[in-house]
Amino acid sequence: MAGAKARYTGAAPVGLAGGWSLERLAPPSRLFGANGLRTGPDGRVYVAQVAGSQISALDVDTGDLETISAQGGDVVAPDDVDFGPEGDLYITEYYDGRVSVRGADGASRVLRDDLPGANGITFHQGRLFVNECRIGGRLMELDLNGGAPRVLLENLPMPNAMEVGPDGMLYYPTLGGNDIWRIDPDGGEPERVAADLGVPDAVKFDSAGRIVSTQVGSGEVLRIDPRNGERTVLATVAPGLDNLTFVDGRLFVSGFTGQITEILGGGRTRAVLPEGLTWPLDLTIDAGGVLHVADGTYFHRFTPGTGLEVLGMLFSPGWPGYIRGAAAVGQGAFAVTTSNGQIARWTPARGEHQVLAGESEPFDQLYGIAVGPGGDVVAAELGTGRVVSVRATGEVTTLASGLDRPMGVAFAADGTCLVSESGVGRVVSITGTGPVTVLDGLATPQGLAVRAGTLFVVDAETKTLTAASLDGRSRTTIARDLPVGPPPGVDPKPLKGLPPFSGPQGLFAGVAAGPDGTVYVSGDAEGSVLALRDLRGGDHRKGDLA
């Protein structure tokens, strides 16, 4: 298929030290997830990608992708898009609360910057309507010249992607209400059209004037006749569906995993773009040697021969929140850090989680997490420069403070706690008298793992994986030019997040070491998971890269 390239292309292929092999357990993703969809005047589908701050144009027949607005550009966290009467692209920037306009020349300007949770957007007869996907959100008509909005409704329970129907009414779904409503664009009282759905997050209309709505909770693509309420399930894809669009009568839907699916007749579907990982972030291995992958709004288990299996996602029962750090703690449970600033114990099979710390006073940007020899949970709090320990009773102790952007956490066999300071390029051990340097000369160390006396460190800036002895006597670069961190020359804008879906988001390349000596790395730049194996039996001091 033409255009079948990934979203990220490094400056060079991954280089390995002698005797090492590399396997991608999950292939590179083509998008940073997929959110709002809109068919453009050129017949291509424009795909907004919140997590990657990117907008791409997709040819649904060839699969060819063109980046319209790139990561690191003016547009941040685009969630939905529509085209204005003059062909300009109007964009809601969810986390920054903005509506931006991108002209045909590629230049962008901000129309409004005071719309927290700006999400659903649609034009009708030259008039622009926008809503805010948040608790207490508003539905508004915006002045194209930047004047004050006209508020049609407020205090809505998370409205989302919307459209004006053939009857001239503006139809909008609400995630919090699990229903679809309509209102006259000129004002008046809203009317509920459908209720008890599968958590609708988008509404569009087919050529027969029927509602077609994606259900993010159930994964259904639902058709509803607004004239008589008749419902038909066109297809069931997977939970995490986000939006939809029509191209010459053909129906396409997007999903959080980046999959773009064509909905065919009789419940059949066709994957136009395959699903993939959005980042991924932290990695952890359970007592049985099974690898698990934290991917923000998803959490996966990897089994050889089967691949990635979803254990939980944003709309799963008992979901703890956007997962950044993860550590297996036994009996199918995980200690996790969330972007909402909480440390929790999560058991996917039971559909439940327990907040261990941070419920009333959230932490400031939690990253890596590990479990100490005594069972205490230890996590890095980047925002305050602390490493904190949480006992089963919920008691929180500060193990270290004054660190420079701590991110990764791991324990040595003797119980020593190791932390990566991404701000100063070193790994330290936490002692009673303060941090002691274990490994320095790094740039932006993030994920840490320890196995058999060897420390593994992923450096997101130099894009390397380093193995070092804990006694400081040896150091080996196992891999370079890894697909981690931002693309070369790109400085991504911060993703501020918006509770309850997510707090501030940030890149984090995790690493884990398996019992067989395999080292796993999160290829967060391309959305892959890498498995590196020492074919000589695990002496990491041999075969350093030149």
Automatic annotation (TrEMBL):
Residues in SMP-30/Gluconolactonase/LRE-like region domain copies: 33-233
PANTHER family found in the cross-reference section: BLL1406 PROTEIN, VIRGINIAMYCIN B LYASE
Pfam families the UniProt entry points to: SGL
Gene3D superfamilies, A to Z: TolB, C-terminal domain (2.120.10.30), YVTN repeat-like/Quinoprotein amine dehydrogenase (2.130.10.10)
Domain of life: Bacteria
The protein, known as: Gluconolaconase
Matching InterPro entries: 6-blade_b-propeller_TolB-like, SGL, Vgb, WD40/YVTN_repeat-like_dom_sf
